[in-house]
């Protein structure tokens, strides 16, 4: 994008703000990462290991998410955890004995890899306590976030570092002043697996105005094939709505229900919902098959592992039964 393209883009986005000023709102510096789930789809592997710590090649999934937040300028990260999640905190803490052993062996390469996670961001932790759903997990971050816009990153979705989805969403939020979710086109037969958005097109190609949201609709009732994926940049007004949101599907406080209500609130008072339609590289680690696909995709593109893995795959795949 040239500077003139960016200027035109911002001018068009400014037209989505009823104030019409188009001036950037307060910076987004905080991220909330819900990580209190039980990971039942991966049992028995997650009996004693949090699903967020399952390795994706040679880093735990949660590290990819924190690194994405940091690349987008979010250096204050709050993880919403639960029981038996101590290994999350340990991973982002110093491992003195391990570091000393690696240093004594002169293994600088592995030492640097171990130390990377120690200094990624200013990390904080709070426990959700009762498993009352994603909406409740986000609400647990209210005291830490305060009255500032903030990002929410779900650990089941990994966004390729070459695609700056979160940075784009932050830019849209600052100009419109509303809340922004990430959307992705899915096959209509798969919409029942996602939250689904009803939208109005805008003058900006990848930005839509959201008029409603439905959690896991029947394909026949889905308002579109635009699914909500696990990235949000939210106005703090969402906390006020979540406090009043009644339990919904699964007797849990659904974030989708709160966002549906927020979409009906005037932008001038913290309402308004927008979507950034993402067409880049997303890796779903939410179930076993997609997790395996993610590991293979990411490993196949690595400079250190890719050449040998791709060669092995070419030899291995033709011999597989149908």
TrEMBL record:
Class in the EC hierarchy, top level: transferase
Record family assignment: Belongs to the UDPGP type 2 family.
Keyword Transferase part of the UniProt annotation: yes
Residues of the Nucleotidyl transferase domain: 30-298
Gene that specifies this protein: galU
Superkingdom of origin: Bacteria
Biological source species: Spongisporangium articulatum
Gene3D superfamilies named among the record's database cross-references: Spore Coat Polysaccharide Biosynthesis Protein SpsA, Chain A (3.90.550.10)
NCBIfam families assigned: galU
EC number, UniProt record: 2.7.7.9
Protein name: UTP--glucose-1-phosphate uridylyltransferase
Keywords of this entry: Nucleotidyltransferase, Transferase
Catalyzed chemical reaction(s): alpha-D-glucose 1-phosphate + UTP + H(+) = UDP-alpha-D-glucose + diphosphate
Pfam families from the UniProt entry: NTP_transferase (PF00483)
GO MF assignments: UTP:glucose-1-phosphate uridylyltransferase activity
